[in-house]
Structure formats: C-alpha cells, structure tokens
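Format notes (please read before filing issues)

Several people have asked whether sequences and structure tokens are stored in separate files. They are not. Every record keeps both together, in the order shown below: the sequence lines, then the token lines. Line labels are part of the format and must not be stripped during preprocessing.
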Amino acid sequence: MLVKMFTVGMIQTNCFIVGDAQTEEAVVIDPGFDSVSEAKSILEEIERNRFRVKFIINTHGHPDHTSGNKTMKEVTGASILIHEYDAQLLRNPSADKTIREGDIIELGEVKLRVLHTPGHSKGSIALLSADVVFSGDTLFAGGIGRYDLPGGSLEEIMNSLKNKLLILPDHLKVYPGHGPVTTIGEERRSNPFLQDL
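Then the structure lines:
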C-alpha cells in the first residue's frame, strides 16, 4: 500500500492518495485543496504512479476536507463517498454513494474498513487498514477534533475515541485530518484528552 500525504488549503488539511501498486487502483481521501497548484501536485503524483482513482472519500462533510471534490471528480471520474449522515453537507457535486460502519472499500489487495466516529460531525468516519488508520478530524497528534460545531458532540467524540480508535493496536500508524502522523500507542500514552478514557 502506498500512502502519500499532501497538506492543503487555508486550514492545512491533510489530503491522502492511497494506492495499490499492483493493480494501480487508488483513492483520494479529503481533497481539501483550494488552489490550482495544490490540485496539480496531487494529480501529478497520481499520474506518476499510473493510478486509476476509483473513489474520492470524505472523512466528513466540512469544506476544508471537500473543497477539491469537484476538480478531482472532473479529472479522474471517481465516485465521491461520504457517510450517510454528512451527505447533505455536499452540494456540488453531491455524493455518488453513501457509506456506513463496517463497509469495506477495496483497492486490489488494500482494504479500508469504515469506522463511524461521530463527534466532530454526525457523519465523521475513520478508515482502517491492516497497519494504518486515517482518523479524519476525530483524533490528532496530541489533540482531538472540535466538537463545538454544528453536528458536533463532546459525548459522541469521546465515545468514538474510546470504543473505535483506542481499541486499535498501539503500533497502528495514525494519519489525521490535520497535523503530523502519529501512532495509537503514542496517543494513548501522551494525548492529554485521552488520559481519562
């Protein structure tokens, strides 16, 4: 599995290309870019790897994670996937398909399992593979996502952290929606928001 991270947009959102080198199938997670140059860098990386983008996956419906959906869909023809509870946040273009807890997204040998992690938004998700998790805006290195926005809930985000993410193995690499890459073990040990869970 190849993972390439780009930090894009005004709020420094992490956008990911995840691909299977053998089948050359890929997904783009959270294309939150808002400039032509950022879009160009991501599209050049896709082309360099000869990837065919099957899906554009939004970990939630906030604009800093979805603003590049239209460009990415126009260039690649990929389908846009988002959790059913956040689908109404997408306008142009709208979601091609909604996803929910337990769904599996396959790219050749790579399998991404959808974890519904509400709290930052009603339809927030994480994507779990064998050795990494894309945590969206639920878990960050040293922090957690905001829960004071419409659709957010402190109770729900703490429940998502405790019952969906902190049960994962310590070695699992965490690719968050913002900020640096971390691991489940590092966050379990040192994240101040998780110490009482």
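For reference, the curators noted about this record: The mean pLDDT is 97. The CA atoms of residues 36 and 107 lie 27 Å apart.
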